[in-house]
Amino acid sequence: SVSAALREHLQRLALQDFPCGLGSWNESRFNAHAASRRGRLGLGTDRAGQEETIPPGEESPEVLLEMLRDPHSPWALLPGCSPQDQHLRELAVLTPEIVRDNNIFKVFRSLRIIDKGVEELDEGLLQLQQLEELILSANRVSRITSANLPRTLRVLELCCNAVADLQGLCAQPPPELQHLGLGHNRLGGPLRDKYLTVDFWPNLVSLDLSFNNLTDLLELVSQLSSLQKLRVLVLQGNPLALIPTYRGFLVDSLPKLSVLDDIHIGPDERCQFQGLARQPELMRSEARVVVAIGEIRGVPDPTAGQQLEVGSEAPVVTYSYSVTYEF
């Protein structure tokens, strides 16, 4: 689950171990009176500017932070960690109470769990009450339980998973979502359940459906046209993108779109395709694919003539091959 992957990651950050957290290296600065004062100052307040007397055997916040920030320090951030990870560790120095009683979950605004084998979006996500960005690319998510998504979410990225339908995601979608990334999944066929309409995504600005198996361009456009805030759309890699009039039809059908398949839509292009949306008869449900084979290795060349002596009765061996493509 996402919660299990998150807890494993937090454990790797060692937020309760020196120089983070609370211990003999800083305990005199965090008595009951100081804890009450910190509550009034607010979570994450930097006390580096306050004059304090550091008892023997303890370290100042500045020294502890330097241990985290120095790339040559034994306590430096591990490779592959994000700037947010560094921010969490520094918070654990300045306000050690943040790592107790799940208070750490209250400071998360962005969560990135990539290629960790995650299969389930569990209800533990609801602890992240301030979460705005959730990146779960390259995992094994096949079903999305939207009731477990924080309502504060603005970005949801699920690229390279195994999502085959939108029913679970659209049961209780985050109302403020602005970007939905579902590229390289298993969405297929015509989307007849109207899940990509303003009824579910009133604030959607960016949508990535690339490299799925979507085939019905007319039905898709009829849904997307209701998304009045949509500005960025990615559909490349779907069978429907092979239709000859694909780009022109989309450009004319979605006049508020600014970027299609990572290419900016300019005034000249809009003028060029003007009126194409009113000619759906041009949308053929077929496409021609030309495949050229550059080189084949490991098999005899059937075109190489055999050198036989004049009058030889040796048998002539012929070769033939076939190549099959499945769409």
Automatic annotation (TrEMBL):
PANTHER family: LEUCINE-RICH REPEAT-CONTAINING PROTEIN 51 (PTHR15454:SF19), NISCHARIN RELATED (PTHR15454). Keywords: Leucine-rich repeat, Repeat. InterPro entries: Leu-rich_rpt, Leu-rich_rpt_typical-subtyp, LRR_dom_sf. This is LRC43 protein. It comes from the Eukaryota. It comes from Heliornis fulica (sungrebe). GO terms for cellular component: cytoplasm.
